């Protein structure tokens, strides 16, 4: 083995030997000292054991903790994972607007979410499916909201199982396909953690259920505005808790009841909460660590590509005269109707998400100011019709004080309106049906689950109908799909509205909504009524077919 045609190996061996001999000659004085003074050797050994460089020792602590956790979750099996499939059910708790004024403005909603997501790490493919069923809230049916997002072949797509069609989407990427639900799976958090030893920082020791945990800060998403703090069990290395903080708001993820699938660990129970209470609580979860089958990433063969849609431009505060003396004013998500009744104006509809800083800055006041600027109308607003008790349609109505405006309210909503706006606003309860302006304006009550009392405003001569939360479209031509919330529920509200209009023999030429700039025609409503309200079993079968 030492012979080679060019003698290169023998030459290299001689070169190394000569340098080794030279190094030994330089070390002779030191070796002689160790022979004469053995205690020096003992001292060097002791220093090596305790660590002669405290800084290097501190830098390695985080790496040791992370390596222990990665090993607990499967080590090399985790890092080389070809794919993963997760099937889970969550209870989702949220605070939202009440369906009845006696409940107060806000109540707790409870939804059940059935999730299925699959990741192919090798081919960089991902699919996410969700059926979101509202159990407690102001929904109009048991039909679930269904979401199906896909990323494969470096392209994203959204699949609509209500209308059985799909839409390519550049907004769907490999990272955002699952809408953040991967952050609730500890296995994937630890897989990402394995690459973040250097920037991680040990903070403290904390006790969870009597067990000590290392607390470390980790830049999991690489965003400076979001911090991640992990609590890692010192006994078994498992992730017990994660805390995130963004703009001062903290969220807590507690991982419990860990199980094993193919050498990979995962928490079968998870609680996600804030200081205000629980948000998500897992009901069931199963995890498979095999590579997902190709069929998971395919669009159903019978589904058609959805036509491209153009959003209706609502960026500017606009004034449109729908008929003589009838003005539709607003922008973004809030519009108001103003009717010239002769000596005064009557208004209906408004929307505002948050309280404004001062008087005259709310959406209703801005709409009125723009109307007067555009038309030179200086008449006072004598009445404003409050359609229902939801606070997003009440905010800003304190500005009616400056106009000495009387708020017309359904009797069941009077206390809720007074509580929201204070004692100084003028409130007058009215029966429904009710007429104004010499019979030119009719008010009808259309009860539904969204709000127990919904006053709709009908102008008989121009056949214009205003509703606030009943139905509308944010597109120039298209209508929303009933697959997603809140559009899913607005179709059931539309059914209630059309039934009420038919009972009264009311004909409508123009439909306007407080949330949409687009004015709908009767032909648009007929199209909406023809769209099927797909029943729950059918939607679930389409969404989870073949799984």
List keywords for this structure.
single chain, 547 residues, alpha+beta, outer membrane lipoprotein receptor (LolB), chain A, Metallo-beta-lactamase, Chain A, 3 domains, 14-stranded mixed β-sheet, seven-stranded mixed β-sheet, 27 strands, elongated, Metallo-B-lactamas, RibonucZ/Hydroxyglut_hydro
Task: Walk me through this protein's architecture.
Residues 323-515 form the Metallo-beta-lactamase domain. This is Metallo-beta-lactamase domain-containing protein. By secondary structure, the protein is of the alpha+beta class. It has 3 domains: 8-52, no CATH class; 72-305, outer membrane lipoprotein receptor (LolB), chain A; 318-537, Ribonuclease Z/Hydroxyacylglutathione hydrolase-like (Metallo-beta-lactamase, Chain A, 4-Layer Sandwich). Helix content is 24%, strand content 35%. It has 10 helices and 27 strands. The protein has helices at 8-36, 38-50, 54-72, 76-79, 186-193, 363-375, 414-421, 487-504, 522-530, 536-544, and strands at 83-97, 106-120, 125-136, 145-152, 155-160, 165-168, 201-208, 211-217, 226-233, 239-246, 249-261, 264-274, 277-288, 304-305, 318-323, 326-331, 334-340, 345-348, 381-385, 406-409, 426-429, 434-436, 441-445, 455-459, 464-467, 510-513, 516-520. Strands 7-8-9-10-11-12-13-1-2-3-4-5-6-14 form a 14-stranded mixed beta sheet, with helices on both faces. Strands 15-16-17-18-19-20-21 form a 7-stranded mixed beta sheet, with helices on one face. β5 and β6 (165-168) form a beta hairpin. α1 crosses α2 (38-50). The chain is elongated, with a radius of gyration of 33 Å.
């Amino acid at each position: 083995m030492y012979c080679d045609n060019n003698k290169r190996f023998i030459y290299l061996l001689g070169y190394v030997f000569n340098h080794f001999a030279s190094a030994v000659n330089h070390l002779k004085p030191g070796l002689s000292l160790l022979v004469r003074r053995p205690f020096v050797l003992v001292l060097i050994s002791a220093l090596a054991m305790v660590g002669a460089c405290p800084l290097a020792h501190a830098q390695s602590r985080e790496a040791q903790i992370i390596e222990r956790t990665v090993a607990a979750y499967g080590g090399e099996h985790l890092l080389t994972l070809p794919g993963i499939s997760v099937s889970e059910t969550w209870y989702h708790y949220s605070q939202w607007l009440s369906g009845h004024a006696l409940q107060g403005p806000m109540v707790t909603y409870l939804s059940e979410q059935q999730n299925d997501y699959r990741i192919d790490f090798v081919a960089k493919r991902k699919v996410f499916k969700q059926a979101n069923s509202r159990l407690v809230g102001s929904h109009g049916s048991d039909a679930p909201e269904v979401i199906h997002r896909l990323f494969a072949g470096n392209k994203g797509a959204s699949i609509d199982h209500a209308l059985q069609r799909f839409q390519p989407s550049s907004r769907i990427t490999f990272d955002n396909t699952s809408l953040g639900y991967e952050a609730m799976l500890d296995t994937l958090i630890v897989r990402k953690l394995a690459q973040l030893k250097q920037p991680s920082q040990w903070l403290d020791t904390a006790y969870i259920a009597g067990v000590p945990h290392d607390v470390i800060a980790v830049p999991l998403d690489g965003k400076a505005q979001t911090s991640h703090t992990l609590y890692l069990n010192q006994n078994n290395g498992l992730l017990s808790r994660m805390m995130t903080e963004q703009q001062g708001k903290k969220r807590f993820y507690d991982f419990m009841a860990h199980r094993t699938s193919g050498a990979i660990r995962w928490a079968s129970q998870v609680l996600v909460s804030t200081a205000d209470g629980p948000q998500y609580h897992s009901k069931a979860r199963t995890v498979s660590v095999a590579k997902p089958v190709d069929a998971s990433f395919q669009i159903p063969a019978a589904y058609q590509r959805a036509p491209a849609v153009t959003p209706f431009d609502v960026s500017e505060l606009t004034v449109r005269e729908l008929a003589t003396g009838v003005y539709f004013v607003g922008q973004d998500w809030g519009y108001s109707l103003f009717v010239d009744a002769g000596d005064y104006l009557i208004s209906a509809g408004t929307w505002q998400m948050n309280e404004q800083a001062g008087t005259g800055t709310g959406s209703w006041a801005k709409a009125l100011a723009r109307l007067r600027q555009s038309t030179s109308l200086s008449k006072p607003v004598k009445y404003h019709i409050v359609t229902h008790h939801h606070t997003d349609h009440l905010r800003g109505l304190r500005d009616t004080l400056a106009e000495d405006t009387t708020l017309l309210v359904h009797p069941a909503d009077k206390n809720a309106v007074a509580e929201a706006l204070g004692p100084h606003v003028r409130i007058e309860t009215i029966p429904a049906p009710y007429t104004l302006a010499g019979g030119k304006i009719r008010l009808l009550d259309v009860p539904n689950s969204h709000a127990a009392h919904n006053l709709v405003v009908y102008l008989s001569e121009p056949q214009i109908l205003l509703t606030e939360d009943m139905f509308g479209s944010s597109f120039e031509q298209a209508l929303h799909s009933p697959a997603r919330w809140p559009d899913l529920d607005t179709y059931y509200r539309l059914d209630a509205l059309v039934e009420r209009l038919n009972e009264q023999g009311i004909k409508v030429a123009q439909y306007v909504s407080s949330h949409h700039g687009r004015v709908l025609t009767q032909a648009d409503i007929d199209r909406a009524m023809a769209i099927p309200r797909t029943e729950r079993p059918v939607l679930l079968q389409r969404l989870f077919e073949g799984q």
